[in-house]
């Protein structure tokens, strides 16, 4: 509840649906498994992506059914997207893709970017309705949020609106890069605190840091070259994630685990006060990295990055202090 109350006081930008230029159909779109033709603007969209409903809602498209990822919010829609959802009551799916249940919904478009859809599932789903898997060469979870939005804009007849959203976000990101020259070329990495798993620049969390001007540590880049978006770091080899800014993403019991991680205190990020603890709400905003969550993520993360990157080891990062993360000079008790 504490996180929700914080959001209620935040002025989130309202992304209004509009189509300044009518888009012609049919639209043919290349993807991981071939190509899909969409003959007319869809009216009943089923979203199988774990984050795709955020993208559709930003375009003014309320999915007929969506796939819930995690969290306790109604319809699996987090607070930054609830205004865009309005009074709609989409069907909520969880777990594995259920072909029979989707067929019963009689959709006219099925979207599956960031869904883990297999080629066999695509073959079956495409017999129900035009189906949009990830773009060629991107892998299951390798697309940028900009590319995902552009493709959904094309598929739903809202390509110009998608471009406008991206232009607004790019403008803000450019201003942030200009305002923080010390970030440009500095290393940063997001790490899931639950198992010390790092996200490469083939994942939207890694791409988020690149958009701010950071680069991946060399060890992380080597995994990116292997087309991996995530990999587990050994607790005995934490130097792979020892960056100028180290962002720990929230997980169950993560604070206790980090405070007991033996080699963490030997990291430069620890001794120089460059660790950021991302709470549940910020971690989810970064993990969605959608047009509706990105402004909340920037509003929250940028001040924390400024604290971590100010060059003064005595500056405490407020989120880490609030979470109870032990730091250089802090108590090691419990």
From TrEMBL:
Residues 44-309 form the Fe/B12 periplasmic-binding domain. One of its GO terms (biological process) is iron coordination entity transport. Keywords: Ion transport, Iron, Iron transport, Lipoprotein, Signal, Transport. The keyword Disulfide bond does not apply. InterPro entries: ABC_transptr_periplasmic_BD (IPR002491), Bact_iron-sidero_bind (IPR051313). GO terms for cellular component: outer membrane-bounded periplasmic space. Residues 310-334 are annotated as: Disordered. It is found in: Cell envelope. Belongs to the bacterial solute-binding protein 8 family. This is Putative siderophore-binding lipoprotein YfiY.
